[in-house]
Each structure stands twice: as C-alpha cells, then as structure tokens.
Amino acid sequence: MSEKTIFQKIIDREIPAPLVYEDEFCVAFNDISPQAPIHVLIVPRKVIPRVGAAEQDDQATLGALLLAAGAVARKLGVDSREKGFRLAINNGVDAGETVPHLHVHLLAGRPLDWPPG
Ligand code: AMP
Prior knowledge:
The chain is of the alpha+beta class. It has one domain: HIT-like (HIT family, subunit A), CATH 3.30.428.10. The chain has two helices and five strands; from the N terminus they run αβββαββ. The protein has helices spanning 6-11, 59-76, and strands spanning 19-22, 26-30, 38-44, 86-88, 104-108. Strands 1-2-3-5-4 form a five-stranded antiparallel β-sheet, with helices on one face. The radius of gyration is 14 Å and the shape is globular. The N and C termini lie far apart (36 Å). The structure holds adenosine monophosphate.
C-alpha cells in the first residue's frame, strides 16, 4: 500500500489541523502557507490523486467538493459579489501540484490578479 499523503494524515487525525468545515465527503482546513488572508483547502476524504485521475464513480465526490467550497465561502463571509473568492485546483507539477491528493484551494480576502501566474 502506498504511503499516506499529508492530507490523508490530517483526515485521519494523525496530524493536527483545525477543520474549518467537514461533511460526509470532504474536510476543509487552513493552508499552512497562506497565499491570501483567507486560504482554505477543501479535500475529499477519498484519495483521488488529481482531477485528471478522477473516474466516473467519483462524480458525487467531485460535486461535493464544489458544494463544500461554497459552504466554506458562506461560512467565512466571502460569498458576496463584492467580496468574492477564487477556487483553484493545481493538476500536475507544471500547474504547481505538490500534494497528490485532490484538493481545491479557496483564496479570498484581497483582490486576486487575473490571469494567475
Ligand atoms: P498544491 O501545491 O496545489 O498541491 O497544494 C498543496 C498545498 O498544501 C500547499 O498550498 C501547501 O502550503 C499546503 N500544505 C502542505 N502541508 C500542509 C499542512 N500540513 N497543513 C495545511 N496545508 C498544507
């Protein structure tokens, strides 16, 4: 069996990380190296390495990730049109993926440049 990802260890409560949100499919916690005043990671309990590795059976998990992101944004009060937030998924090394366990970055709390770097 392959070694657990750092996110799997957080989900299994082997590494402490206060949860901002959790449900049947996902957990969310603050990024350890925040790139904005609000930087939350939404992570499925199921280990899917990246979007490109998701399968048809993962449909419910993928939908739950976006619903969880919306719930986190509402909970943190950044879901208005004025404040806003950005969701990002880094798929592969060129895109900045460092943890091979699918996750959505939720960034907010400052104006965010477009296009991203
Ligand atoms: P990515 O580069 O898209 O794979 O995102 C991985 C993210 O995980 C990075 O933004 C890291 O700062 C974050 N990260 C790594 N270890 C931890 C940890 N123990 N707790 C919270 N965030 C972490």
